Amino acid sequence: MYAVCVFFFLSVSCNVIAGSPDCFAKIDTIIQETFRCKSKQIVGVSVAVVTSGKVILEKGYGVKDIETNDTVTADTLFGVASLSKAFASTLLVKLIEENTKYSLNTKVSTIFKNEGIFLDSLRSKYATVRDLLSHRLGIPGNNRIRLDNNLTRANVIHRLKYLQSKGSFRDSFFYNNLIYGVLTHIAELIGRESWEKLVKTHLFDPIGMNSSSFLTTADFEKIDLAKGYIDYYGNLKPVPFEFSRRWADLCGSGCILSSARDMAKWMKFYLDEGKLADDTRLISKEAFEDLTRPENVIATTYTSTYFTKPKVPVTTSNTGYALGWRTGHYRGYKMLEHSGTTFGYRALLSVFPDADIAIYTAMTGNDPSYLYRQSLHNVIFDIYMGYTPWLNSSTICSYPRPWLDAKVQSSKPRYSKGRNPTRQISDYHGIYKNHAYGNLEVKKHKDGNKLTVVYGFSNFVLYPKNKTDEFYGESIGTTAHIFNFYSFKFRFENKTVKLEIPNFESKDPPEFIRSAETNLTNKSCFLNVSNNVCFVLLYFAFSALLV
């Protein structure tokens, strides 16, 4: 009975000019009702709606912090994650417009004065800025490289030459945050300032986004910031701000913090096709068309899985990728859209140029497969455009049911903390190297007969599986609850020891090889021999090799 009543309430069109109190009340009610049913998954929500040049809704729901219970407002900052990519592309297009030395078709090798940037000669010779912005390189994400303490915006370009391509150049879509790290540095090279300063000067300030900031530079104690939360097998756990700062270092891929009030201004800027509030152009019409024109085709997305006819009554499509934006349609209207998902924060922004409406949501907590965000955007659009919504509070709460079965959430793997590995602990010790990922260390854990893996600012305690030389890795320290039970697979091949970590990149699992120095050390210097004797033995061993 409840679901029927809610549907009847929403099925009545506003039938008045957009932005009426009637429309606002309907939207506000459905957000509050659905937020209540999602309260075990989501802590805080930020929403903004812009249409016909006016801000119709900018509001916060829930709390910023479970412990303090402080409420979210329209000015509360959330991590917008990959919504940052549209800022990265817009900034770069603007800088290129102002610097005639470069264009979107400038080759990456020209910018870095290096003809061996990628593993193959085709990409090294022909890849352009446009290719990077539209994810056309065919290189898998390898996102866990971002855990390496030695990775920077300046040197990420040097890691790419060791990454295998798995798709065709300019004929495949492989989403890649590392590439947007490269684009961040390209903007810094052209603009001669840090990316954060460039975004503030060229975008935030003229658009009026006065509260927005960056995970990389913000003083978390002094800003109105929602704390990120992550789902840990059914329980919400806070994400340390320090982790968020370090994870966001590549910045253009996902470091921006913003509020409903500021994002409303960003959406107006895009609805006005690059014009500011005073009707002056920040970027040319041609540049705006470059930003929003599809450059790549996306074969499969979450919308094709959960929001497409005949599976559900109305199709939402994301079939193309422009520059920092996905392109598609809803209800036949052209749509620019991008999702943002990082540890602790979720976001979605939808811009409908022809309907003159844009919608933004951000939240802390868990929203698997974007089901809540996309459902909210669809029903908000329907209400403002006068359509009879196909979704209501009840079906948003149960989505994708009743149309599709919900994806079963993964459960914590069963393992024994008391099981011993099949080899001596010391057999696994050492420094393991991978050209793209850098080094990691395997060593004895401080608590008993266990191994620990240290990679950058991540730390895993290993627990043996039933299979020989395979382990579950439970993250601890700064990354606790974030990287859940990764698989670590050791292989002993003659005198070489290799470690494969499939969870680091499923499309091309990286393999780390234990260094030769480690092998010598394990066989000689860990014996009950004095350090001096060990040194003498090593000296003669190396001398013999040189003869």
From TrEMBL:
Annotated SUPFAM superfamilies: beta-lactamase/transpeptidase-like
Residue stretches making up the Beta-lactamase-related domain: 35-368
InterPro entries: AmpC-like, Beta-lactam-related, Beta-lactam/transpept-like
Gene3D superfamilies the record matches: 2.40.128.600, DD-peptidase/beta-lactamase superfamily (3.40.710.10)
First and last residue of the signal peptide: 1-19
Any Pfam family the entry gives: Beta-lactamase
Keywords: Signal
Record flagged with keyword Signal: yes
PANTHER family in alphabetical order: BETA-LACTAMASE-RELATED DOMAIN-CONTAINING PROTEIN (PTHR46825:SF15), D-ALANYL-D-ALANINE-CARBOXYPEPTIDASE/ENDOPEPTIDASE AMPH (PTHR46825)
Protein name as catalogued: Beta-lactamase-related domain-containing protein
Gene source species: Mytilus coruscus (Sea mussel)
Lineage of source species: Eukaryota, Metazoa, Spiralia, Lophotrochozoa, Mollusca
